Structure formats: structure tokens, C-alpha cells
Amino acid sequence: MSARSEETRLIQRIRSELGFIRGNFLIILTGWLLIDFAREMAFTYYPLYVQALGGTASTVGLIGSAAAITEAFIKFPGGYIADKYGRKKIIMTMTFMAALTYLFYALAPSWHFILIGAVLTSICWIYTPAFDSIVMESLPEEKRGTGYSLINLIKKVSTTPSPLLAGLLFTSFGLVTTSRISFLAVALAFLIAAVLRSRLIETNEEKEQINARELLHSFSGARSFIDGIGVWKLVPRTMLALLGVELIFIIPNIMFNTTLIFYFVNDLGITELQLATILTVIGVSMILLTLPAGKLIDKIGRKKPLLFAFILLALIIPILYFATFELILIFTPLIGLTNVIFYSAIQALYADMTPPEHRGKISGSKSFFMLIGVSMGQISGGLIYDNVSHTLPITIFWASTIPAFLLTLLFIKEPSSSEINGSSRAREF
Fold first, then answer.
1. Which of the residues in the chain have pLDDT under 50?
2. Helix 23-43 vs helix 128-136: angle between axes, to the nearest 10 degrees?
3. 204-235 as b/e: b if 16+ CB within 10 A
4. Structure confidence at residue 36 (pLDDT)
5. CB–CB of 362/349 below 8 Å?
6. Which of 13, 76, 230, 409 has the CA that lies 20 to 30 A from 114?
7. pLDDT on residue 109
8. DSSP label at 220?
9. Which structural domains are found in the chain, ordered by start?
10. Is residue 426 helix, strand or coil?
């Protein structure tokens, strides 16, 4: 076989595997690339930045909790708006508004201004149900595992150099100035993404014209809340089990992540530059593992990889009790793998089983419950670290892998072809 024939076959294979990356999905990935690069750079030292502005671990938890509660209560109207009035306009508008809110982070004279910025930023996330819906509608069913893994891959490709860049800035400008520069970069990234997202094509073709009175009524919470709760009666029961697994796993995970950087720096003696290196290694490992994990999820299903991720995590976490910098570097690729599998498989399962006409409401309702859990995890994680034990958040996270594994094993099943709601008919946007 000639070299030209081999080259042609390779090009055809690439087109077959990645040909769905076009239109709306390409715009989405490009915007994510910019935003996540800047956000990862800014949040490399975020807990230490809050501490430098007068805060503590409890303060970091308070800010995160307030942001999560705010975001939770705008998810229901967000889902209502996405299904009734369409996706594009709210995505584009609120992406622009998010750019402005990050100026509170960049210019904060004390941690209280970061709290204000966090709450205002959370209000902007009213667009996420619309955003989640447009992603689902851009991915064919047979590519969803690969597609969501690719989303995670693109995010990690963009963010891999971010901690190193933050570390480089740290050596030149110190903690506070580095953080201010980084959050200004986040504001700029959101501004560019808003311009890009103005080119999205509306996927909710039967959208209604916005009725101002009805829109304001949806923000009162009653109608959108009732719709958001009631929609779970219209989906397979496996989705309720899936929601339970996420909640059981996410709350301890957030407790753990809220205090992890404090634990690394204050308890294990990890330096700021070593921290940047650890975060970079996690990013590189996720780049290398994301597409293989996504293809595996598409090939053997979603459930088995999820079970494997919980087992692997249960084996890794105890190492943190006595970890050194070198030991953390060795095991971070496995931590990256568990993240890739968990989020890719969960997202693919939701996309498989959510009816197209309810995607906005399901996304909003699911996000509401997740964010209540996030709020609980952040505030309790900070309080436990400051007042009870520096290792207890690690222990709770370790213990959570047991019920998460059992729930997945007993109550989550792979969706049949009849339960995959119109996903194979994904349109080209």
C-alpha cells in the first residue's frame, strides 16, 4: 500500500472520529479553551490570595458556599428560559456580564469584595442550562463519551500551562499581584468568548418570543421550581439514582478540594512552585488519558468505568495522609484518570437519558441540587479544617467512595437504545 493511500486512510479515520467538531460545538470548545486557561491560572493560588486579603479556610468555604447557593437558585429559571425562549441570547449576554464580575476579584482590597464578585458571577451562570442543552444537541449519541471527554481534554489542554505561568508570575510579582493579573486575564477571556458565542446558531427552533411579565414571574421561583422538580417524573428512574450518586460523591469531594491547597502548603510543606508543578502534572495526565477514556466509555458503556473510578480513588486517597511532594507527583496521573472517567461517564449518561424537550429543565434542576451540595461541602470543609481536623475532609471523601460504588452497582443501568432520547438524531449546528 502506498504512502499516499496510508495518508488518505489516516485522514478519513480522523474525519470519522472527530468530524462532529464543527459549528456550535467548535465555538463552544474554543470559548472553553480561552476561559479555562485564564481561570486555572487565576485559581492556582486562589485560597492563598483570599488568605492574603485577610481570609482563612473558613472564609474560602463561605465565599464558595454563598456563590453556590446563589447559583443554585437561578438554575430553575435558567432551565425554564432555555427551554421556552432559546439558548443563544442568554448564553451570549451572560457571558459578557461574567467578564465584568471578575473585576471584583482582580481589584479586591479585601476578601469581602471577592465575596461580592463570587455572588455576581454566580448570577451569570443562569445561562448554564442553555449551555448544557446546546452541547447535548451538538453531539451524536454514538460520540457522546468521546465528545464529553474531548470537552474535558480541551479544557485541560488550555489549562496545563496555566499553573506554570502562575508560578512564573509568582516568582516575579508575588502572590497578590500575580492573582490580580490572572483575574484580569479571566475578565478578558470571558469578553472574547462572548464575542465568539454571538456566532452560535439557535438550536431551540420552536422558541417563543420573550414575554417580560412571564420571564419575571419565572424568577419568583414558584413556577420554575415546580417545573424543575416535576420534570424528574418524566425521565427514567436510573436518572434519579444517578443524581443520588453525584450528590453522595460531590459533597465530600468539595469538602476535600476546598481545603486541599491549605493542606498541601500548611501541613505537608509543599511550596507554591511545587503546587504549580503538581497541578500541571494533573493537567498533562488528563490530556493523555481523556480521549482513551472517552473511547472506552463509548465502547463498553458508562457503568463499568464509573465503578472502576470509585475503586481506584479508594486506593489512592490514603496516600495523602503521609504524602511527600515526590509521592504526590507519582500518583497525580491516577487522580486525573478518576476525574476524567467520572465526569465523562456521568455527562454521557445524562445526555443519553434526557428527553430533548426537557434538557434545559433537567440541567437546571440537577445543577440546583448539585450546587446545594457544593455549598454544604465548601462551608463545612473550611469549618472542619479550621476548627476540627486538617485531615478529616480527606477521611470523609475516602469514605464516600463506598456508598457511591454501591449505588452505582445496584441502581444504575446502561440505557437501552429505546431510552436514548433522540440522541442519534443530533442536528448539525
1. 10, 14, 422-429
2. 130
3. beebeeeeeeeeeebbeeeebbebbeebbeeb
4. 87
5. no
6. 76
7. 95
8. T
9. 20-201+227-417 (1.20.1250.20)
10. coil
**CA-CA distance, 21 to 6, in Å (whole number)?**
23
Q: What is the pLDDT of residue 63?
A: 94
| Structure-block grid coordinates of residue 421 | 432520547
Q: For residues 58 and 74, what is the distance between their CA atoms, to the nearest angstrom?
A: 25
pLDDT 10s digits, 205-235:
656 555 555 555 555 555 556 666 767 777 7
pLDDT digits (tens, 9 = 90+) for 233-249: 777 777 888 888 888 88
Spatial CA neighbour of 365 closest among 252, 253, 247, 227: 227
Q: What is the pLDDT of residue 87?
A: 78
C-alpha–C-alpha distance, residues 376 and 382, integer Å: 10
Q: Which residues in 231-276 belong to E strands, given as ranges?
A: none
Q: What angle do CA 102, 104, 107 make, to 5 degrees?
A: 110
- Whether the CB-CB separation of 342 and 209 falls below 8 Å is answered with no
**Please, what's the largest Cα pairwise distance for the chain?**
69
48 Cβ neighbours under 8 A, 6+ residues apart: 175, 261, 265, 272
CA distance 351 to 423: 8
- The DSSP letter of residue 264 is I
Contact 19, 426 (CB under 8 A): no
Write down the mean pLDDT value for the chain.
81
Give the CA distances from residue 68 to residues 1, 73, 359, in Å, rounded to whole numbers and listed in that order. 58, 9, 21
Residue that the C-alpha cell 443530533 belongs to = 426
pTM of the model: 0.69
Residue type, 142: E
Dist CA 308 CA 253 (whole Å): 17
